[in-house]
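Handout, tutorial session.
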Amino acid sequence: MSTTTRPPSPGHHAGPADEAGPAWSSRPPVAPWHRLRSPTRPRWRRRRLLGAAVALVLAVLVLLPDLFGLDRVLPFAVFAALRLPLAVATWVLGVGLLALRPRWWPVLAPTLAVAVLAVALVVPRAVPEPAPAPGGTELTVLELNSFEGHADPRAIAATALGAGADLVVLPEAGDRMRRALAGLLPGWRTWTNVPPSAAEVRGVVVASSPRAGDVSAQRLDGDTRYPWAEVTGGILGPTRLVAVHLVSVVPQWISYWPGELAMLQRWCAAAGPAMVVGDLNASPDHSAFRAGTAGCTDAGTATGTSLVGTWNSGVPRWLGTQIDHVLTRTAPDGSGPQARSLEVLDLPGSDHRALLVRLRLGAGPAAGSPRVHTPPVG
């Protein structure tokens, strides 16, 4: 039987049966276009969910690696150090993409939330803590990584004298820098913890002003890539100050870095007052830094200046990271150091910026009582 519909003959008028069409047809009925479901729509949804998941994981790995202990290895240690600029860049990029592609918001929203959380973890360090109570003895410390001894000793000496510094701590400085400072700072005592034949990068130089009194320094030999030095006596009273230079976050030394930070507990968990001064190659954004310095207060965080970068001096301060530190610990009786102010200074010749920290030495047994000055040593 044929199902072909014949055209009406001439003079034929369509009736109800003709309008209804044939009784049956081999062609399936076609739904209106707006009822059709595109087979690509579920696929697009899956791709969107996958994209959101991938973006979220990447944002967490880059901006929050310390929450999972990943920041103790490369490249996550570098990501943690640059958390704030990376979070800001992520936010700006995400908002820009949303402005161009509003329909991408399900993919970008989780990433933007991670960026906001990363900034929220950092911003409180820009808010100063309450200043220490008045009184006690004033102590001023100048710290600078001298970049393998290339920093200008004349600038260092002029800054120390102009600021009234009591102690100067210079990581990556050896006997050549010590001798230069001794000639520029008459009456000051100077030390280095490496022999004259050692490369400048391995040493730490400590200089103390006449006002600091009978300060002494000794080399600390331990399981560290660079030797440290402990400074005691004089104006410090019962406070023990350790001058340090920790290994850089580079492939050949990254395995030693968390262990060296952990060694700082010798001072930050001590019963008496203590200070840690130097280049730690770490910031409070690193979990190993927070663990190793638990019990100490970072002068940058206490004064609201922790986000001012000391490295690299070749980039804007807001883009760098503060890896140079002055850490303080007070004793239960209130004796010991507390930071009053911190300035970040640009000095020629170094790839770091200097820290000028003014502290209060709280009253305690013999605190802030300089002893008789003795001639310079070594």
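The second record follows below. Compare its token runs with those of the first.
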Amino acid sequence: MFVQSCCLLTARPLALADLQPALKGFDVLGATEAQPDTHWAIGAPALVLSLPGHDRGRIIIDAIGERWPDAMGRPDDHVLQRAWGMGGFGPMVMPGCLERAGTQAWAWRKAGDAVRGHQGFVRIRLAYAPAEEAPPIPADRDPATELLGITRVAAKLLEVDGVRCWFDPNGESLRPAGFVWQALDFHESEGELPLDVWANVRVGKLDPEGQWMLMDSVGLGQLGLPDVEACFPADVAKLEEVDRWVRDVMAYLADAGDVIESGHAVDGPDGRSWRALKIEEGFSPPSRATVRFLPPVDDIPKHLEMTGSQAAQMADELRAAVSATIGLSGDLSDAAAAEKAAEGDDEG
């Protein structure tokens, strides 16, 4: 059972031999052989590394000479569908994740080129080795340590010729190499988790006219946390202000844990108190739990205040009725500015 995963998109198909020189600083435990007559999704050869800090942690790396199968739930490839359903690409990976990541890579101008031009990908997944009389997933696991472990491996592999960029299919984030390296350096110096590597912040409209907007995160589930949704009238605050605020809330949750409950009030991006609601399923795919924030305004659409099964049903109806994602240009956050600064390092 894989508990974490990330990927690297490659400009051409790579082999494990291409990756091994970059892994000299890691504890490589061995390798698995290709399983004959077996679908690549479950039988590709792999390198096995140890996870620092946990004697049962195993990082499994394979190099796939196929384009990322974004419609992996498709019925015409039953083995691929089964591998995806069993978490073979990651615990929170949903069909369409790469397309959504490319659409919502606000400040990285070359993200679309990376998606369209990739000819393979590297999977980096984390699992725990079985132990006698021990649960499959250790009670003492730490998701942040797991993510840092696979991110450090990915950062070294981003130096390999032919590796194009970082792709976290669980957080639907595409990042150039320089951005990942800078985020890890900042973590090492300041201790701040590289959330902008693991998660994405997106924007969309909640009605055809765009009178109400949605800005949300995707990826905090990797840390065992709900994602963040801000639903607001378009004239309440500037998008860049909401963007910074959403990221601040994400950082607060990563530090404090899942502590925000329905009815709690939080200072919003406009300086007023915004009300929180715990939601079982957010508006935009992928399906996941969120904390939704609403500003103190009149005439809030009733469906924005629904919770439980009503919220899930409304989310399904809204996705069918409204084109939820829109493209943006320009700097929307410090993270966006950092991505622009890192563009020179994204060729791999």
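Points raised in discussion: Residues 2-190 form one domain.
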